[in-house]
Amino acid sequence: MTSINVLYISIEGNTRSFLKRMQTYANQMNSIDSSNPTINLKEVTAQTIPAHEEEPFFAFVPTYLDGGDGLTSGYTEMMTNPLGEYIADGDNAANLIGVVGSGNKNFNEQYCLTARMYAEAFDAPFVANYELRGTSQDLEVVYGRLKDAAAKFNKE
Ligand SMILES: Cc1cc2nc3c(=O)[nH]c(=O)nc-3n(C[C@H](O)[C@H](O)[C@H](O)COP(=O)(O)O)c2cc1C
Fold first, then answer.
1. Mutation test of ligand 1: which of 102, 129, 133, 142 has the most ligand atoms closer than 8 Å to its C-beta?
2. I need a surface site. Which of 31, 97, 111, 156 has the fewest CB within 10 A?
3. 64 alpha carbon to ligand 1 midpoint, in Å?
4. What is the average pLDDT across 64-72?
């Protein structure tokens, strides 16, 4: 495993910040031990034209749901739809190794719900979650989960 591919969407920059920091961390880990994979990032936006993903990839999905009143959950996805459409296009979902969710725990049961919905819709594992921009510890934990899930995916 030389590198891990990540597709993501980021409306306010938290997911982008987390992933750029994780990319730097992965580079450091790779320079210590070359068996540690580096990370390739691809940001999907509303302007992205769907393309075939040749290689296995992870999706990093922040949560933006409309509705929900604290008692009942809102389920209507907004802002992040271009990423879901990209994965749903052609047979891209077959290359989806797993989904990482981010959100804000103030949303209670709606925390990371979009990523959990993607995992179910695309039949891929929900491999990790973190809040907002994530901590240094989150970077290390999520990177480890990506390595494990990628190794498992390649074996199957
Ligand atoms: C309008 C709005 C709705 C949100 N809805 C949810 C939600 O339902 N569940 C959740 O866990 N986080 C929710 N969040 C928090 C975001 O998912 C979180 O801030 C995330 O880090 C944003 O990532 P980004 O900056 O990469 O776009 C919401 C944030 C906003 C601004």
1. 102
2. 156
3. 5
4. 69
Closest-lying ligand 1 atom to the alpha carbon of residue 63: 17
> Computed from CA positions of residues 14, 16, 20, 25, in that sequence, does the dihedral angle turn out positive or negative?
positive
Q: What is the pLDDT of residues 121-147, one digit of tens each?
A: 999 999 999 999 999 999 999 999 999
Domain boundaries 3-155, corresponding CATH code: 3.40.50.360
Q: Which pTM value belongs to this model?
A: 0.96
Nearest Cα residue to atom 28 of ligand 1: 64
Residues with CB under 6 A from ligand 1: 10-15, 62-65, 102-104, 107, 110-113, 132
Nearest CA owner, ligand 1 atom 3: 64
Exposure class string for 67-87: b at 16+ Cβ within 10 A, else e: ebeeeeeeeebebbeebbebb
Q: Give the pair of three-digit tokens for residue 65.
A: 């749901």
Could you tell me where the beta strands, DSSP code E, fall in 72-120?
73-77, 96-103
Buried/exposed code over 107-128 (b: 16+ C-beta within 10 A; e: otherwise): beebbbbbbbbbbeebebebbb
